């Protein structure tokens, strides 16, 4: 990895601090560097303003003169009542160079931010940074497909069960895996379960980690009926396109909701928490997901991460494109 790619990866890591509080704006990270040393850094603030570049450049002040700005997303080119265009801030900063990790698909910027910076006489390079793209995955999915990025979480036994035959499911996984799930919830805009799960378990779906309760996502239920107070209804998986303010959707189950989203081809990422237990005769994690032949099941998913969480194992899969 080149030095530029390392700094972009660091900017992507900073961006994660803004998620999901930056909504409706994407979470972006920015670092001002000179002679290999960090001058300042910033990430998108709650509510979407100030942007990461504005924070980093304000902190750098005159020290930005001759420095390099690394930013995970192309600086915006459009002016807003909420703040200036970041491309204009960069042009006025006396930076020597800007390195961008991901182009902005927003038609108001889409290349115009980089072009404006170059016109101001500042070198500007657009590099392909996997870390930056991953950090902006929800924003990019919404821009490209008109829907949020959808992560399906399953907590299963070794034999693929999510509950005993009588419905008992608390708890298949241990404390560490459940804490990790809560951390994942805190990074999402909305969380969804099926109507059957809501009626049977009355799940809270909040974030129960110290000091993080305020990051609990919106609660949605997949149902053709009504929802209790504090919940929102999604009538079908395809209706996710109506969730215009949501960049990251976390589907937690049960089997009906999980299968419906898989059958619709709308799951981008799988989080499978696997406990070292056998249930036998329990409730399966999935129902029919629309496969007509075994060959169709192959080549659909790519393992991107595997880690031990106490006695349980987490495997993360991304859909092959």
Automatic annotation (TrEMBL):
GO terms for molecular function: 5-amino-6-(5-phosphoribosylamino)uracil reductase activity; diaminohydroxyphosphoribosylaminopyrimidine deaminase activity. It comes from the Bacteria. Gene3D superfamilies: Cytidine Deaminase, domain 2 (3.40.140.10), Dihydrofolate Reductase, subunit A (3.40.430.10). Pfam families: dCMP_cyt_deam_1 (PF00383), RibD_C (PF01872). Its EC number is 1.1.1.193, 3.5.4.26. Signal peptide: none annotated. Keywords: Hydrolase, Multifunctional enzyme, NADP, Oxidoreductase, Riboflavin biosynthesis. SUPFAM superfamilies: Cytidine deaminase-like, Dihydrofolate reductase-like. Pathway: Cofactor biosynthesis; riboflavin biosynthesis; 5-amino-6-(D-ribitylamino)uracil from GTP: step 3/4; Cofactor biosynthesis; riboflavin biosynthesis; 5-amino-6-(D-ribitylamino)uracil from GTP: step 2/4. InterPro entries: CMP_dCMP_dom, Cytidine_deaminase-like, DHFR-like_dom_sf, Eubact_RibD, RibDG_C, Riboflavin_Biosynth_HTPR. CDD domains: Riboflavin_deaminase-reductase (cd01284). In the C-terminal section; belongs to the HTP reductase family. In the N-terminal section; belongs to the cytidine and deoxycytidylate deaminase family. Converts 2,5-diamino-6-(ribosylamino)-4(3h)-pyrimidinone 5'-phosphate into 5-amino-6-(ribosylamino)-2,4(1h,3h)-pyrimidinedione 5'-phosphate. PANTHER family: 2,5-DIAMINO-6-RIBOSYLAMINO-4(3H)-PYRIMIDINONE 5'-PHOSPHATE REDUCTASE, DIHYDROFOLATE REDUCTASE FAMILY PROTEIN (AFU_ORTHOLOGUE AFUA_8G06820). This is Riboflavin biosynthesis protein RibD. It comes from Novosphingobium rhizovicinum. The lineage of its organism: Bacteria, Pseudomonadati, Pseudomonadota, Alphaproteobacteria, Sphingomonadales.
């Amino acid at each position: 990895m080149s030095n530029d790619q390392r700094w972009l990866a660091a900017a992507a890591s900073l961006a994660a601090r803004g998620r999901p509080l930056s909504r409706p704006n994407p979470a972006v990270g920015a670092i001002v560097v000179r002679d290999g040393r960090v001058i300042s850094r910033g990430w998108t603030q709650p509510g979407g303003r100030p942007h990461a570049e504005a924070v980093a450049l304000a902190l750098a002040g005159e020290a930005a003169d001759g420095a390099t700005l690394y930013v995970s997303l192309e600086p915006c080119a459009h002016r807003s009542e909420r703040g200036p265009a970041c491309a204009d801030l960069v042009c006025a900063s006396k930076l020597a160079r800007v390195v961008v990790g991901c182009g902005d698909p927003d038609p108001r910027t889409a290349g115009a931010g980089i072009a404006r910076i170059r016109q101001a006489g500042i070198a500007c390079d657009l590099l392909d940074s996997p870390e930056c793209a991953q950090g902006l995955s929800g924003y990019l999915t919404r821009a490209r497909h008109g829907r949020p990025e959808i992560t399906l979480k399953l907590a299963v036994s070794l034999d693929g069960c999510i509950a005993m035959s009588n419905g008992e499911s608390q708890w298949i996984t241990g404390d560490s895996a459940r804490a990790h799930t809560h951390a994942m919830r805190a990074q999402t805009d909305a969380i969804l379960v099926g109507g059957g799960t809501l009626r049977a378990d009355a799940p809270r779906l909040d974030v129960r980690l110290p000091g993080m309760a305020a990051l609990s996502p919106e609660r949605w239920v997949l149902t053709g009926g009504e929802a209790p107070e504090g919940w929102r209804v999604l009538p079908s998986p395809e209706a996710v396109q109506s969730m215009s303010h949501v960049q990251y959707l976390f589907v937690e189950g049960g089997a009906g909701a999980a299968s419906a989203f898989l059958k619709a081809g709308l799951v981008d990422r799988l989080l499978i928490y696997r406990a070292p237990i056998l249930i036998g005769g329990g409730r399966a994690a999935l129902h029919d997901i629309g496969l007509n032949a075994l060959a169709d099941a192959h080549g659909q998913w790519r393992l991107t991460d595997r880690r031990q969480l106490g006695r349980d194992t987490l495997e993360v899969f991304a859909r092959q494109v």
